[in-house]
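User: Teach me something about this protein's shape.
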Amino acid sequence: MSTDDPVFQTVIAPFVVALLVVAASRLVGGGRRAELLAGVGVVLGILVGYALLEGVPQFPPPASKQKLFYLIAFGGLVGLVVDWLGRPSLIDALAIVAFPAACLTWLAWRQLNAGPESTLLVTLAVLWAGSAAALRRLVDASDRGAGVTGPLLLIVAAIGTAGVALLGRTATLALLSGAIAAGAGTIALWNYVASIGGGGRASFGRTALLAAAGGLAVICALLVLYTPTASRVALVGILLVPFSETVARRLRLGSGAAERILSPIVHGAVAAVPALAAIGFAYWASGGTLTQ
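Assistant: First, the predicted structure itself:
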């Protein structure tokens, strides 16, 4: 596969970069430093994927899509501060609420500055509420269990978003969703192997979560605000993915090694239901075509 291949640029390269940094984080002795470095690795992996595909955009970016690069970096920075402070409850909660609001404000700044219509304000309010609720659910899932469920839910949501974006005739956003899935995949894979083999786990802290999940929320906002060919209704299915964990947790999977092996598989299967429904609806809404 050539290094000019978009799949290499947005899936393989981000995964390798993030995995190398996550692996290196185990060399610093664990604890807070290892957690912070692992999170930075996920952020770097996603940003490398963007840079290889689109190049590093100038600042300030002239197009809304180019703001994604800086918002991912900003999310990583906010998350890094929260993780560094030890995730105090008030600051943690404020970050989850304020970060998507800041992203949406910057994305729609020109329209807001020009005198927004009520339709835009309602759309932004719905996007903010959905993003904040999804981030909260991912935070809760990431703070439980073996550190696999949170990133796994994000992977499924990113794949679903990629499908909706591709069917909405915007391959670039689909590929960038793949970069987010690849970055989160490093933590999910590392922790899954560690939960079975007994190795040290890498925390999916706020650094990785706000960059990756926040970046995915920005992609969904770009699809809603600036991609009329993408199905808005289909994105409701993506929003439901983080909430699927509530259903999966009710399923009895035994205990011990069997639970550690089967639980992520079951969580992924349950999460795939709304994601596949979203892709299916987007396919129907597009008339069954993938052409741009």
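Now, about its shape. The CA atoms of residues 83 and 206 lie 6 Å apart. DSSP finds twelve helices and no strands in the chain. If you'd like, I can walk through any region in more detail.
User: That's plenty for now, thanks!
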